């Protein structure tokens, strides 16, 4: 965005028709006298029409005539405009006028548009259109607010900008992904079949694979099944327990087959502690998850 000084020049110049011509520094030598203020012209300050500024801004396809027309039709702005002309703005009562009354000394009328300083007060009907025009380049909330505040204003404009950007699909798509959660490594176990990690891989050619890994020995058991159920999981775990003995802890994701009453009762009856990995973060089930990936990769290649 241009600096405030450049903007002020733009406001002053917007009332004129002019062409900008570049003059080389060597042929445009400024001496002390040429910089001396000319007191006569300084005291004779011309009144500039700031409303030209909004019209000369190419990003807005609106003329001050559109704004003036809608200002006359806007129930609140029409009254505000009338009150400014009569000098009775501070007499307006009602919460809908409070934002305008608090700026009563700073509001003015130009070409039947209400201005707050250089900023044009936009009537309700044109607000959505103007916001979209300003947000064409999909700047972020802070930059869009800065840009809009330089040209226009209405009560609660900031909230409307935030709402627009928070619901703008192109802006949301470009948002960076949230940072990955920090993974806490599993504590190493001292004995075999103390803690096992369980997960399902698939579907691979219409089958699922139940993967069970012992965290100490990294021994892997894999069982093929057509459907993922608590009963199937329990039956296979029962086989494992018969062969290797009971375990202390079972780690799984929060799939229905692991959280069902049937599965929970089975673990409780065998005094097995159940650790569920964070929902939406299957990678926290470290070993089984890694092995599931390995199995999938190999099965796809077969
Ligand atoms: Zn956007």
Automatic annotation (TrEMBL):
Residues 184-302 form the Integrase catalytic domain. It holds the Pfam family Integrase_H2C2. It is an enzyme of class 2 (transferase). It comes from Drosophila lebanonensis. This is RNA-directed DNA polymerase. It comes from the Eukaryota. Gene3D superfamilies: 1.10.340.70, Ribonuclease H-like superfamily/Ribonuclease H. GO terms for molecular function: nucleic acid binding; RNA-directed DNA polymerase activity. PANTHER family: PROTEIN CBG26694, PROTEIN NYNRIN-LIKE. InterPro entries: Integrase_cat-core, Integrase_H2C2, Retrovirus_Pol_polyprotein, RNaseH-like_sf, RNaseH_sf. Coiled coil: none annotated. Its EC number is 2.7.7.49. GO terms for biological process: DNA integration.
């Amino acid at each position: 965005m241009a600096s405030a000084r450049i903007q002020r020049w733009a406001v002053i110049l917007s009332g004129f028709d002019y062409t900008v011509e570049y003059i080389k520094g060597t042929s445009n030598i400024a001496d002390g006298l040429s910089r001396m203020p000319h007191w006569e012209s300084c005291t004779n300050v011309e009144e500039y029409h700031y409303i030209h500024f909004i019209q000369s801004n190419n990003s807005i396809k609106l003329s001050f005539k559109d704004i003036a027309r809608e200002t006359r039709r806007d129930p609140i702005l029409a009254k505000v405009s009338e009150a400014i002309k009569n000098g009775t703005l501070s007499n307006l009562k009602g919460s809908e006028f409070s934002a305008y009354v608090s700026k009563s000394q700073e509001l003015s009328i130009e070409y039947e548009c209400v201005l707050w300083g250089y900023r044009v007060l936009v009537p309700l009907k044109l607000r959505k259109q103007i916001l979209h025009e300003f947000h064409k380049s999909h700047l972020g909330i802070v930059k869009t607010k800065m840009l809009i505040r330089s040209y226009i204003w209405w009560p609660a404009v900031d909230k409307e900008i935030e709402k627009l950007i928070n619901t703008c699909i192109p802006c949301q798509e470009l948002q960076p992904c949230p940072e990955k959660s920090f993974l806490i490594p599993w504590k190493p176990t001292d004995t075999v079949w103390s803690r096992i990690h369980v997960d399902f891989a698939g579907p691979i050619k219409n089958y699922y694979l139940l993967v069970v890994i012992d965290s100490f020995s990294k021994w892997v058991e894999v069982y093929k099944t057509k459907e993922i159920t608590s009963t199937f999981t329990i039956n296979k775990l029962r086989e494992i327990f018969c062969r290797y003995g009971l375990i202390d802890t079972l780690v799984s994701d929060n799939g229905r087959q692991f959280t069902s009453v049937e599965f929970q009762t089975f673990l409780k009856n065998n005094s097995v502690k159940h650790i569920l990995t964070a929902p939406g973060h299957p990678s926290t089930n470290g070993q089984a998850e890694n092995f599931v990936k390995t199995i999938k990769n190999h099965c796809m290649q077969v």
